[in-house]
Design brief:
Helix content is about 40%, strand content about 25%. It is of the alpha/beta class. The strands form three sheets. Strands 1, 2, 3, 4, 5, 15, 16, 17 and 18 form a nine-stranded mixed sheet that branches. Strands 6, 7, 8, 9 and 10 form a five-stranded parallel sheet that branches.
Length: about 425
């Protein structure tokens, strides 16, 4: 199958915009990216790209997909009260069917907002994996380990390891797996040591939550004399590739540790704002050499799985925290949403940019809306002005998942109806 996207503007890995390009997709890869009129046919399909931006799809580096169930349900509370009063009691009632359908609901939302890959930790992960297989996205999936007592360590590790082994490389390579001790405050040191060893044995990354609130950091310092980042380093947790979600309250020393171990920090601005956790020091982390990416966190706290919204908010809050309008540029915000994140999820240089030889993951964004006019700088417009409805087409591995606003792999009407039905149990 050879597809031509004709005459589109293309956003490169560094945020540079090249107008009027022909992009050829052959099989699951980009075959060529050349000036308009120079693509060599024949083609099985031609997509008109004039008035469109072709960009790498967004990558959500931290979420809990099935928590679409919690959207609009949980009250606005500090993190620990939110978890203890609103989330954990409900999660005790979750069924595999719930996770399957609310994962599908999240996948609909992610496709519509231009996400092509994501990192997810939760429960009943086999159901989420099957949903991802059906939807056609890429995902780094993991069972969320919670082991605050010794009797939970072996059962939780076994469950996490079994899932990771079974699903790693599934769905034609679109699914990768990780190990996910939930956080330093929910897992004993022994669990962390064993999980790190298993991750090393299976050659998998770790995906966890780190330094989300000031209280968390203060408790850890009071109990151990170390910050959560220092504590995890002391346990050897950073000896394997690590996705550290949030990193809101990290010191200069913490930043140096994260950078030295090539830990990826995942900034989740909407969730951190809603729970009043704080604004992560993104500019400081980037200056220290930390690979900072973006995530939505679960929709229960963020309200949305829209990475375009997170990209805009990350740029705005980054400027506000530093009191510097140049602190987080559109180019940096865009890279946090695409290329930096792709490497963090284990696909390296295979996705995250539009270039010959790379896997054909991308989105077509319309420029015709009044909010995108006059269109002086398509990248600036994409970061600050574009909305979810501007995403018109999404493709992963060369396969169209949404074509001119029409979902091709998922039945949105059926999924939303089923989720409304299932949600009645939780009202």
């Amino acid at each position: 199958m050879r597809t031509l996207i004709r005459g589109t503007a293309v956003i490169g890995a560094g945020g540079e915009v090249t107008p009027a390009m022909d992009v050829v997709i052959e099989g699951n890869r980009f075959a060529s990216v050349v000036p308009a009129g120079r693509a060599q046919g024949p083609f099985d399909r031609t997509i008109e790209g004039e008035g469109r931006i072709l960009a790498p799809g967004f990558v959500n580096a931290h979420t809990h997909l099935a928590m679409t169930l919690f959207r609009g349900k949980a009250r606005d509370l500090p993190l620990m009260r939110w978890l203890e009063e609103e989330v954990w009691p409900v999660e005790q009632k979750l069924t595999a069917e719930d996770v399957r359908w609310f994962s599908l609901l999240g996948l609909v939302e992610m496709i519509r907002s231009g996400t092509v890959a994501f990192a997810d930790m939760y429960f009943f992960m086999e159901e989420t994996a099957q949903a991802v297989e059906e939807a056609g996205l890429r995902a780094l999936l993991s069972y969320g380990i919670i082991a605050p007592t010794t009797d939970r360590i072996e059962p939780e590790l076994r469950k996490a390891g079994d899932f990771a082994r079974e699903w790693n490389g599934a769905a034609e390579g679109r699914i990768a797996t990780a190990l996910s001790p939930h956080a330093p405050y929910t897992c004993l040191p022994e669990l962390w040591t064993k999980a790190t060893g298993l991750a090393r044995e299976l050659k998998l990354p770790i995906h966890t939550h780190v330094a989300e609130t000031e209280d968390e950091v203060q408790r850890m310092r009071a109990e151990t004399g170390r910050s959560p980042v220092e504590w995890l380093e002391g346990l050897g947790a950073f000896s394997v590739p690590t996705l550290a979600a949030h990193c809101v309250h990290v010191s200069e020393k913490d930043c140096d540790i994260l950078a030295a171990h090539q830990v990826t920090a995942v900034h989740c601005p909407s969730s951190n704002a809603r729970l009043a956790c704080g604004i992560a020091p993104v500019a400081d982390m980037l200056k220290a050499g930390v690979n900072v990416t973006l995530g939505t966190d679960g929709p229960g706290s963020s309200g949305s799985l829209d990475l375009m919204r997170e990209m805009r908010l990350a740029a705005l809050l980054g400027k506000l925290r530093q009191q510097d309008p140049q602190a987080i540029s559109p180019e940096v915000a865009f890279s946090m949403a695409t290329q930096r994140r792709a490497a963090a999820l284990g696909w390296g240089n295979e996705i995250g940019t539009i270039a010959a030889g790379r896997l054909a993951d991308g989105i077509l964004v319309a420029q015709q809306g009044a909010h995108m006019v006059p269109g002086y700088n398509p990248l600036t417009d994409l970061v600050y002005s574009a909305v979810q409805a501007d995403v018109r087409s999404v493709f992963v591995n060369g396969r169209m998942l949404m074509d001119e606003g029409r979902l091709l792999t998922l039945d949105e009407e059926r999924i939303t109806a089923k989720c409304r039905e299932l949600a009645q149990r939780y009202r």
